[in-house]
Here is the input.
Amino acid sequence: MDNEARGGPPVNLDVFRETMRDAGVEDIVEPTIETYLEESAERIQSLEQAVKAREADTIEAVAHALKSASGAIMAERLAGQLQILEDAGARGDTDKAIDLFTETRREFDAVVEFLKRG
Here is the structure.
């Protein structure tokens, strides 16, 4: 399913930029995106490893960190999926985490591709 079918782009950059402009920190938009791209690649790998190893506590912690960062840049679909993964980890439901990870990874990849295109 492409991004338009899911309700628009994977990141609402316009809202993110507007929020930062309203806060008087528009100059941090690009550095924030660069930091997200650098740090999130490592986090999604850690999350994948935790899911494969069925490490519920790590799933919960890494999904939480990546969810927070994704929400901050207005990658709302990804943040929502990560919230569900975080909850699965908190419940120790590693079967659910395994089921969710493929779609979460697909959405993550869409976010990264979108951000790299600018």
Summary: The mean pLDDT is 93. The chain has five helices and no strands. The first helix runs from residue 13 to 22. Residues 28-117 form a domain with the Four Helix Bundle (Hemerythrin (Met), subunit A) fold (CATH 1.20.120.160).
